[in-house]
């Protein structure tokens, strides 16, 4: 990891990017800019006073650029910023998408940027509550070998325990994350619907202890650490 404080820019003002930036700010870095989003009040609440800039300007001002946009938008954004010469030699570029490794950052790498892929395994709400979840979460990190320690150090500064995932394994990793989150949500929705249908009021609350304890037992049986992994701590697929 570099010595001293990094100037951090955020491209993507959804649920993930501002929280990741806030966590790194808590570790001593400075947030220098964020792109606009659909919920400016939420972003202001977690990144108070941070200038709202367009994406090329965020990239030009930052030593570390966090790119947290929807999966389908990531390749075009990276290449589009390369087309306008926004990436800088020696700049760290970190994306948070579970399915991509660093290959997607190729256009930025061609202009001298350092590619990092870090996916914190929590379900982001986009609020300060996520900072607590990060402190008990894991993060998948992928980077070229010479700069892998940088990715690992940033994950630690987020509060996460870094787990190295090979470039070739990112698709399988993303499938595992999606299976756990989408299946869990579907089952809970089906169960609450059935209970509501027989007149049980607030079926979500009724099932809460049962679902949490069942998941904890399943994680323990699978070799996980039930006390450290939150039921809600597994989905950032939408950026």
Please describe what this structure looks like.
With 239 residues, the chain is an alpha/beta fold. It folds into two domains: 7-167, Rossmann fold, CATH 3.40.50.720; 171-221. 43% of the residues lie in helices and 14% in strands. The chain has nine helices and seven strands; from the N terminus they run βαβααβαβαβαβαβαα. Strand 1, helix 1 (17-26) and strand 2 form a beta-alpha-beta unit. Helix 8 packs antiparallel against helix 9 (203-221). The model is unreliable at 224-239 (pLDDT under 50).
Provide the spatial order of strands within the biggest beta sheet: 2-1-3-4-5-6-7
What radius of gyration results from the CA coordinates?
A: 19 Å
Largest sheet features: 7 strands, mixed
Q: Count the helices. How many?
A: 9
Number of domains: 2
Summarize model confidence as the mean pLDDT: 90
* Structure classification: alpha/beta
Total strands: 7
- Taken from the alpha-carbon principal axes, the silhouette is globular
% residues in beta strands: 5-15%
CATH architecture of the largest domain: 3-Layer(aba) Sandwich
Distance between the termini: 25 Å
Oligomer: single chain
Percent of residues in helices comes to 40-55%
Q: What is the CATH T-level topology of the largest domain?
A: Rossmann fold
Order of helices and strands: EHEHHEHEHEHEHEHH
According to CATH, the homologous superfamily of the largest domain is NAD(P)-binding Rossmann-like Domain
Give the low-pLDDT segments: 224-239
């Amino acid at each position: 990891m570099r010595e001293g404080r990094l100037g951090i820019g955020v491209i993507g003002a959804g649920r993930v990017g501002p929280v990741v930036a806030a966590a790194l700010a808590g570790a001593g870095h400075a947030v220098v800019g964020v792109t606009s989003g659909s919920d400016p009040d939420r972003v202001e609440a977690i990144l108070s006073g941070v200038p709202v800039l367009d994406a090329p300007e965020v990239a030009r001002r930052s030593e570390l650029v966090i790119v947290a946009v929807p999966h389908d938008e990531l390749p075009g954004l990276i290449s589009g910023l390369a087309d306008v010469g926004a990436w800088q030699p020696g700049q760290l570029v970190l994306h948070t998408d579970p399915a991509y490794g660093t290959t997607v950052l190729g256009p930025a790498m061609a202009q001298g940027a350092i590619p990092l892929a870090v996916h914190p395994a929590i379900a982001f709400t986009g609020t300060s509550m996520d900072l607590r979840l990060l402190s008990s979460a894991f993060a998948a990190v992928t980077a070229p070998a010479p700069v892998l320690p940088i990715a690992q150090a940033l994950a630690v500064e987020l509060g996460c325990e870094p787990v190295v995932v090979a470039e070739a394994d990112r698709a399988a990793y993303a499938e595992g994350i999606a299976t756990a989150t989408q299946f869990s949500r579907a089952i809970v929705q089906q169960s609450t619907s059935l209970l509501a249908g027989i007149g049980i009021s607030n079926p979500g609350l009724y099932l809460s202890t049962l679902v949490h304890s069942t998941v904890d037992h399943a994680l323990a049986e699978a070799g996980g650490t039930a006390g450290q992994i939150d039921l809600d701590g597994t989905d950032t697929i939408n950026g």
